[in-house]
Amino acid sequence: MPRLSFTRQSPLAGPLFMLLSACLFTVMNLLLKQAMADFRIWDIGFYRFFGGLVLLTVVFGRRGNPFRSFNTKLLIVRGCTGSIAFLFFILSVRLLPVSTALMLLYSFPAFAAIFSSWIYREKVSPLGWACLITVLAGVAVLVHPKSGGESLGYGAGLLSAVFAGLTMAIIRQLKQTNGSVIIYLYFCVVGSVVTAPFFLQAPVLPLSLGQVLVCGGIILSSILGQLLMNHGFGYCRSWEGGLYMTSELLFTAIAGIILFRDPVGWHFLGGGTLILGSAVAIQVEQALRGRSLAAHLKECPGGRPNKKGQSPF
Protein backbone atom coordinates (compact mmCIF):
# COMPACT_ATOMS: atom_id res chain seq x y z
CA MET A 1 0.00 0.00 0.00
CA PRO A 2 1.37 3.46 -0.84
CA ARG A 3 2.04 5.92 1.93
CA LEU A 4 -0.73 8.50 2.34
CA SER A 5 0.54 12.08 2.01
CA PHE A 6 -1.39 13.45 4.98
CA THR A 7 0.14 10.85 7.33
CA ARG A 8 3.79 11.20 6.34
CA GLN A 9 4.73 13.50 9.20
CA SER A 10 1.97 12.61 11.66
CA PRO A 11 2.99 10.76 14.84
CA LEU A 12 -0.62 9.54 15.06
CA ALA A 13 -0.46 7.62 11.78
CA GLY A 14 0.77 4.35 13.29
CA PRO A 15 -1.72 4.25 16.19
CA LEU A 16 -4.53 5.29 13.82
CA PHE A 17 -3.88 2.48 11.33
CA MET A 18 -3.44 -0.10 14.10
CA LEU A 19 -6.60 0.88 15.96
CA LEU A 20 -8.59 0.90 12.72
CA SER A 21 -7.22 -2.56 11.98
CA ALA A 22 -8.21 -3.78 15.45
CA CYS A 23 -11.71 -2.35 14.90
CA LEU A 24 -12.03 -4.17 11.58
CA PHE A 25 -10.89 -7.47 13.11
CA THR A 26 -13.46 -6.88 15.85
CA VAL A 27 -16.13 -6.44 13.18
CA MET A 28 -15.00 -9.72 11.59
CA ASN A 29 -15.26 -11.52 14.95
CA LEU A 30 -18.78 -10.23 15.53
CA LEU A 31 -19.88 -11.10 11.99
CA LEU A 32 -18.49 -14.62 12.44
CA LYS A 33 -20.71 -15.02 15.51
CA GLN A 34 -23.68 -13.62 13.58
CA ALA A 35 -23.06 -15.97 10.65
CA MET A 36 -23.32 -19.04 12.90
CA ALA A 37 -27.10 -18.84 12.80
CA ASP A 38 -27.26 -19.43 9.03
CA PHE A 39 -24.02 -21.08 7.88
CA ARG A 40 -21.82 -24.05 8.67
CA ILE A 41 -18.16 -23.73 9.57
CA TRP A 42 -17.16 -24.89 6.07
CA ASP A 43 -19.43 -22.32 4.42
CA ILE A 44 -17.98 -19.45 6.45
CA GLY A 45 -14.42 -20.63 5.86
CA PHE A 46 -14.89 -21.04 2.11
CA TYR A 47 -16.52 -17.66 1.63
CA ARG A 48 -13.78 -15.96 3.62
CA PHE A 49 -10.90 -17.77 1.86
CA PHE A 50 -12.24 -17.77 -1.70
CA GLY A 51 -13.55 -14.23 -1.46
CA GLY A 52 -10.17 -13.05 -0.22
CA LEU A 53 -8.41 -14.96 -3.01
CA VAL A 54 -10.55 -13.32 -5.69
CA LEU A 55 -10.19 -9.79 -4.30
CA LEU A 56 -6.42 -10.02 -3.76
CA THR A 57 -5.88 -11.49 -7.21
CA VAL A 58 -7.94 -8.75 -8.87
CA VAL A 59 -6.21 -5.93 -6.96
CA PHE A 60 -2.61 -7.14 -7.04
CA GLY A 61 -2.66 -9.36 -10.13
CA ARG A 62 -2.46 -6.31 -12.39
CA ARG A 63 1.21 -5.87 -11.45
CA GLY A 64 2.21 -9.34 -12.61
CA ASN A 65 2.01 -12.88 -11.25
CA PRO A 66 1.00 -12.43 -7.57
CA PHE A 67 1.81 -16.09 -6.78
CA ARG A 68 5.50 -15.91 -7.72
CA SER A 69 7.73 -16.86 -4.80
CA PHE A 70 11.04 -18.52 -4.00
CA ASN A 71 9.62 -20.36 -0.99
CA THR A 72 6.37 -21.88 -2.21
CA LYS A 73 6.51 -24.97 0.00
CA LEU A 74 6.77 -22.98 3.22
CA LEU A 75 4.00 -20.63 2.02
CA ILE A 76 1.75 -23.66 1.52
CA VAL A 77 2.64 -24.95 5.00
CA ARG A 78 1.78 -21.52 6.44
CA GLY A 79 -1.50 -21.64 4.54
CA CYS A 80 -2.31 -25.05 6.04
CA THR A 81 -1.52 -24.09 9.63
CA GLY A 82 -3.31 -20.73 9.32
CA SER A 83 -6.39 -22.36 7.77
CA ILE A 84 -6.58 -24.95 10.54
CA ALA A 85 -6.21 -22.21 13.16
CA PHE A 86 -9.03 -20.19 11.58
CA LEU A 87 -11.39 -23.18 11.31
CA PHE A 88 -10.80 -24.10 14.95
CA PHE A 89 -11.41 -20.46 15.86
CA ILE A 90 -14.75 -20.51 14.02
CA LEU A 91 -15.71 -23.68 15.90
CA SER A 92 -14.84 -22.07 19.23
CA VAL A 93 -16.86 -18.98 18.31
CA ARG A 94 -19.83 -21.24 17.52
CA LEU A 95 -19.68 -22.99 20.91
CA LEU A 96 -18.43 -20.21 23.19
CA PRO A 97 -19.02 -16.49 23.72
CA VAL A 98 -17.05 -14.62 21.07
CA SER A 99 -15.07 -12.71 23.70
CA THR A 100 -13.98 -15.97 25.38
CA ALA A 101 -13.03 -17.54 22.05
CA LEU A 102 -10.84 -14.54 21.20
CA MET A 103 -9.21 -14.59 24.65
CA LEU A 104 -8.20 -18.20 24.04
CA LEU A 105 -6.85 -17.34 20.59
CA TYR A 106 -4.71 -14.53 22.03
CA SER A 107 -2.70 -17.05 24.01
CA PHE A 108 -0.93 -17.83 20.71
CA PRO A 109 2.23 -15.78 21.57
CA ALA A 110 3.11 -18.46 24.12
CA PHE A 111 2.93 -21.19 21.50
CA ALA A 112 4.68 -19.00 18.91
CA ALA A 113 7.64 -18.62 21.27
CA ILE A 114 7.71 -22.36 21.95
CA PHE A 115 7.66 -23.24 18.24
CA SER A 116 10.22 -20.53 17.39
CA SER A 117 12.54 -21.84 20.07
CA TRP A 118 12.05 -25.45 18.97
CA ILE A 119 12.10 -25.07 15.16
CA TYR A 120 14.32 -22.03 14.58
CA ARG A 121 16.36 -22.11 17.80
CA GLU A 122 15.31 -18.56 18.71
CA LYS A 123 16.31 -17.54 22.21
CA VAL A 124 13.53 -16.61 24.63
CA SER A 125 14.53 -14.34 27.52
CA PRO A 126 13.65 -15.20 31.15
CA LEU A 127 11.12 -12.33 31.12
CA GLY A 128 9.63 -13.76 27.94
CA TRP A 129 9.24 -17.21 29.51
CA ALA A 130 7.61 -15.64 32.57
CA CYS A 131 5.09 -13.86 30.33
CA LEU A 132 4.36 -17.06 28.43
CA ILE A 133 3.77 -19.03 31.63
CA THR A 134 1.41 -16.28 32.77
CA VAL A 135 -0.48 -16.54 29.47
CA LEU A 136 -0.99 -20.26 30.00
CA ALA A 137 -2.05 -19.62 33.61
CA GLY A 138 -4.64 -17.16 32.27
CA VAL A 139 -5.92 -19.82 29.90
CA ALA A 140 -6.21 -22.26 32.80
CA VAL A 141 -8.28 -19.71 34.78
CA LEU A 142 -10.43 -18.86 31.75
CA VAL A 143 -11.27 -22.48 30.89
CA HIS A 144 -14.05 -23.76 33.13
CA PRO A 145 -16.35 -25.94 30.98
CA LYS A 146 -19.72 -26.89 32.40
CA SER A 147 -21.00 -29.02 29.52
CA GLY A 148 -19.78 -31.20 26.68
CA GLY A 149 -20.35 -28.46 24.12
CA GLU A 150 -18.31 -25.98 26.13
CA SER A 151 -15.51 -28.53 26.55
CA LEU A 152 -15.32 -28.91 22.77
CA GLY A 153 -15.37 -25.13 22.38
CA TYR A 154 -12.51 -24.63 24.84
CA GLY A 155 -10.54 -27.40 23.14
CA ALA A 156 -11.10 -25.80 19.73
CA GLY A 157 -10.03 -22.41 21.12
CA LEU A 158 -6.80 -23.83 22.50
CA LEU A 159 -6.06 -25.66 19.24
CA SER A 160 -6.65 -22.42 17.32
CA ALA A 161 -4.04 -20.75 19.55
CA VAL A 162 -1.57 -23.63 19.06
CA PHE A 163 -1.83 -23.54 15.26
CA ALA A 164 -1.84 -19.73 15.24
CA GLY A 165 1.39 -19.81 17.25
CA LEU A 166 2.94 -22.23 14.76
CA THR A 167 1.74 -19.99 11.94
CA MET A 168 3.35 -16.91 13.48
CA ALA A 169 6.65 -18.76 13.87
CA ILE A 170 6.55 -19.69 10.17
CA ILE A 171 5.57 -16.16 9.13
CA ARG A 172 8.61 -14.69 10.88
CA GLN A 173 10.74 -16.94 8.69
CA LEU A 174 8.78 -16.14 5.52
CA LYS A 175 8.97 -12.37 6.07
CA GLN A 176 12.69 -12.48 5.37
CA THR A 177 12.05 -13.11 1.65
CA ASN A 178 8.30 -12.56 1.08
CA GLY A 179 5.90 -9.65 1.33
CA SER A 180 2.71 -9.58 3.39
CA VAL A 181 0.39 -9.79 0.37
CA ILE A 182 1.80 -13.03 -1.04
CA ILE A 183 1.82 -14.65 2.41
CA TYR A 184 -1.84 -13.76 2.87
CA LEU A 185 -2.65 -14.75 -0.72
CA TYR A 186 -1.32 -18.28 -0.26
CA PHE A 187 -3.28 -18.48 2.98
CA CYS A 188 -6.46 -17.81 0.99
CA VAL A 189 -5.46 -20.31 -1.71
CA VAL A 190 -4.81 -23.16 0.71
CA GLY A 191 -7.88 -22.30 2.77
CA SER A 192 -10.06 -22.42 -0.33
CA VAL A 193 -8.65 -25.83 -1.28
CA VAL A 194 -9.17 -27.20 2.24
CA THR A 195 -12.77 -26.00 2.65
CA ALA A 196 -14.04 -26.42 -0.95
CA PRO A 197 -14.72 -30.22 -0.80
CA PHE A 198 -16.77 -29.91 2.39
CA PHE A 199 -18.53 -26.78 1.15
CA LEU A 200 -19.50 -28.37 -2.19
CA GLN A 201 -21.06 -31.42 -0.51
CA ALA A 202 -24.01 -29.34 0.70
CA PRO A 203 -23.36 -25.65 0.07
CA VAL A 204 -25.39 -23.11 2.01
CA LEU A 205 -25.70 -20.03 -0.18
CA PRO A 206 -26.38 -16.50 1.08
CA LEU A 207 -29.88 -15.89 -0.26
CA SER A 208 -31.14 -12.92 1.72
CA LEU A 209 -29.66 -9.42 1.71
CA GLY A 210 -28.66 -9.81 5.33
CA GLN A 211 -26.75 -13.02 4.64
CA VAL A 212 -24.95 -11.42 1.69
CA LEU A 213 -23.95 -8.45 3.84
CA VAL A 214 -22.64 -10.73 6.61
CA CYS A 215 -20.53 -12.83 4.21
CA GLY A 216 -19.29 -9.76 2.35
CA GLY A 217 -18.51 -8.05 5.64
CA ILE A 218 -16.39 -10.99 6.83
CA ILE A 219 -14.35 -10.92 3.61
CA LEU A 220 -13.86 -7.14 3.50
CA SER A 221 -13.19 -6.64 7.21
CA SER A 222 -10.57 -9.42 7.29
CA ILE A 223 -8.70 -8.16 4.21
CA LEU A 224 -8.88 -4.46 5.10
CA GLY A 225 -7.90 -5.21 8.68
CA GLN A 226 -4.86 -7.15 7.48
CA LEU A 227 -3.78 -4.48 4.98
CA LEU A 228 -4.22 -1.64 7.46
CA MET A 229 -2.19 -3.54 10.03
CA ASN A 230 0.60 -4.17 7.52
CA HIS A 231 0.51 -0.51 6.49
CA GLY A 232 0.54 0.65 10.10
CA PHE A 233 3.77 -1.18 10.80
CA GLY A 234 5.40 1.22 8.35
CA TYR A 235 4.69 4.10 10.77
CA CYS A 236 5.53 2.49 14.11
CA ARG A 237 7.84 -0.08 15.60
CA SER A 238 6.81 -3.73 15.77
CA TRP A 239 6.30 -3.76 19.55
CA GLU A 240 4.18 -0.58 19.35
CA GLY A 241 2.01 -2.08 16.62
CA GLY A 242 1.57 -5.30 18.57
CA LEU A 243 0.59 -3.33 21.64
CA TYR A 244 -2.05 -1.38 19.75
CA MET A 245 -3.41 -4.58 18.18
CA THR A 246 -4.17 -6.05 21.62
CA SER A 247 -7.02 -3.54 21.71
CA GLU A 248 -8.91 -6.07 19.56
CA LEU A 249 -9.39 -8.09 22.73
CA LEU A 250 -10.99 -5.16 24.55
CA PHE A 251 -13.13 -4.08 21.59
CA THR A 252 -14.44 -7.61 21.01
CA ALA A 253 -15.06 -8.24 24.71
CA ILE A 254 -17.04 -5.01 25.10
CA ALA A 255 -19.02 -5.60 21.89
CA GLY A 256 -19.70 -9.24 22.82
CA ILE A 257 -21.00 -8.24 26.23
CA ILE A 258 -23.26 -5.53 24.80
CA LEU A 259 -24.50 -7.23 21.62
CA PHE A 260 -24.47 -10.94 22.51
CA ARG A 261 -24.82 -10.74 26.30
CA ASP A 262 -21.56 -12.60 26.83
CA PRO A 263 -21.29 -13.66 30.50
CA VAL A 264 -18.81 -11.79 32.67
CA GLY A 265 -17.63 -13.81 35.67
CA TRP A 266 -14.45 -13.98 37.69
CA HIS A 267 -13.09 -16.70 35.38
CA PHE A 268 -13.41 -14.40 32.37
CA LEU A 269 -12.08 -11.32 34.17
CA GLY A 270 -9.23 -13.14 35.89
CA GLY A 271 -8.11 -15.20 32.90
CA GLY A 272 -8.59 -12.30 30.50
CA THR A 273 -6.52 -9.99 32.70
CA LEU A 274 -3.65 -12.49 32.84
CA ILE A 275 -3.73 -13.08 29.07
CA LEU A 276 -4.05 -9.40 28.14
CA GLY A 277 -1.47 -8.33 30.72
CA SER A 278 0.98 -10.92 29.45
CA ALA A 279 0.40 -9.86 25.85
CA VAL A 280 1.22 -6.27 26.83
CA ALA A 281 4.27 -7.42 28.80
CA ILE A 282 5.53 -9.39 25.81
CA GLN A 283 5.35 -6.25 23.68
CA VAL A 284 7.24 -4.26 26.33
CA GLU A 285 9.87 -7.00 26.45
CA GLN A 286 10.21 -6.73 22.68
CA ALA A 287 10.60 -2.96 23.06
CA LEU A 288 13.52 -3.44 25.44
CA ARG A 289 15.07 -5.92 23.03
CA GLY A 290 14.47 -3.50 20.15
CA ARG A 291 16.36 -0.73 21.95
CA SER A 292 19.34 -3.03 22.38
CA LEU A 293 19.18 -3.93 18.68
CA ALA A 294 18.93 -0.26 17.69
CA ALA A 295 22.01 0.56 19.76
CA HIS A 296 23.87 -2.30 18.07
CA LEU A 297 22.84 -1.08 14.61
CA LYS A 298 24.20 2.38 15.38
CA GLU A 299 27.55 0.84 16.16
CA CYS A 300 27.40 -1.62 13.24
CA PRO A 301 25.24 -0.01 10.50
CA GLY A 302 24.12 -1.97 7.49
CA GLY A 303 20.79 -3.44 8.49
CA ARG A 304 17.52 -2.59 10.16
CA PRO A 305 14.82 -4.66 11.82
CA ASN A 306 11.74 -5.67 9.89
CA LYS A 307 8.79 -3.57 11.03
CA LYS A 308 6.03 -5.30 9.18
CA GLY A 309 3.72 -7.82 10.81
CA GLN A 310 1.17 -10.38 9.91
CA SER A 311 -1.94 -11.78 11.54
CA PRO A 312 -2.16 -15.58 11.84
CA PHE A 313 -5.32 -15.23 9.77
What's the topology here?
Blueprint: H1 13-35, H2 41-60, H3 72-95, H4 98-105, H5 108-119, H6 126-142, H7 148-174, H8 180-201, H9 209-232, H10 238-245, H11 247-260, H12 266-299
Overall tally of domains? 1
Radius of gyration: 19 Å
Shape: globular
Mean pLDDT: 82
Oligomer: single chain
Please report the number of helical segments. 12
> Percentage of helical residues?
over 70%
Low-confidence stretches: 2-7
| Main sheet record | none
Tally of DSSP β-strands:
0
Strand content range = under 5%
Element pattern in H and E: HHHHHHHHHHHH
Terminus-to-terminus distance: 19 Å
Please give a structural write-up:
The protein is an all-alpha fold and 313 residues long. It has one domain (20-299). The protein contains twelve helices and no strands. α3 packs across α8. The longest helix is centred in the C-terminal third of the chain and has 34 residues, at 266-299. The radius of gyration is 19 Å and the shape is globular. The two termini are 19 Å apart.
Summarize, please:
The chain is an all-alpha fold and 313 residues long. It contains 12 helices and no strands.
What are the key terms here?
single chain, 313 residues, 12 helices
